[in-house]
Design goal:
single chain; 222 residues; alpha+beta; putative membrane protein from Corynebacterium diphtheriae fold; 2 domains; four-stranded antiparallel β-sheet; three-stranded antiparallel β-sheet; 7 helices; 41% helix
Length: 222
């Protein structure tokens, strides 16, 4: 597993990292749901009707679930830890749209406990890419954020994997260039040669396209 160590600029990450922003939105939505659920529960109990008590119980359970999410979201692995534990992967800008761009990344989606590798193309919608040209083919070194820690043993063999650009963790151009150089030219070329598949990946339910191991360049086989 190829890791890339660098000092995460927390202020920069909290300003531009869309994973951080997503967690903030999730927590805010959960807090709102708690308030609405608690209010609805109190109102239904106040009505004191036979039909209102089951609904009050359902609202209370919903509020409790939302409260758990609101408390759990901030305790998830911090951004610095995600960068430290994730695998360095290549991604390229495959398409530009008015609200941002779409990245096409090459990731290993096999569970770690299988001891094997299975490469896939995945896509990631991004709104901003600091220190990068927002142009088709731009090389964007990133970290793969895998689902190992939350996926149950009975989960599917191929894990969902998200990608987090190095540029979301640091504004240091030298660090980004160093990460870009660590990725092999074979990997960058594979992505560039398959840019036409990005729309197909984007349309798929999992936003993932498994690659045939037999057709991968030497060194990337299973």
């Amino acid at each position: 597993m190829r890791r890339f160590e660098f000092v995460v600029d927390r202020r920069h990450a909290h300003a531009v990292n869309e994973v951080v922003a997503g967690r903030r939105r999730l927590r805010l939505a959960a807090v709102v749901a708690v308030l609405l659920g608690a209010g609805a529960t109190a109102y239904l109990v106040w009505l004191s009707r036979a039909w209102s008590y089951p609904l009050a119980l359902a609202c209370a359970l919903g509020a409790a679930t939302a409260m758990w999410v609101a408390l759990w979201a901030p305790r998830r692995a911090g951004i610095a830890r995600l960068y430290a534990e994730g695998e360095l992967v290549p991604a390229v800008v495959s398409r530009i749209h008015p609200r941002g761009a779409v990245l096409l990344a090459l990731v290993n989606v096999a569970r770690r406990d299988t001891g094997e590798s299975r490469y896939a193309l995945v896509t990631k919608n991004v709104r901003g890419l600091p220190a990068h040209r927002v142009a088709e083919g731009e090389r964007v070194p990133a970290i793969a954020v895998r689902g190992d820690s939350t996926a149950p043993v009975t989960a599917e063999r191929w894990l969902p994997v998200d990608v987090m650009p190095i540029a979301w963790g640091t504004a240091d151009i030298a660090v980004i260039e160093c990460a870009r150089a660590v990725v092999t030219e074979i990997e960058w070329r594979l992505l560039t040669d398959n840019l036409a598949l990005a729309d197909r990946v984007q349309r798929s339910a999992t936003r993932r396209l498994l690659l045939d191991p037999g057709q991968l360049p030497e060194g990337l086989g299973a």
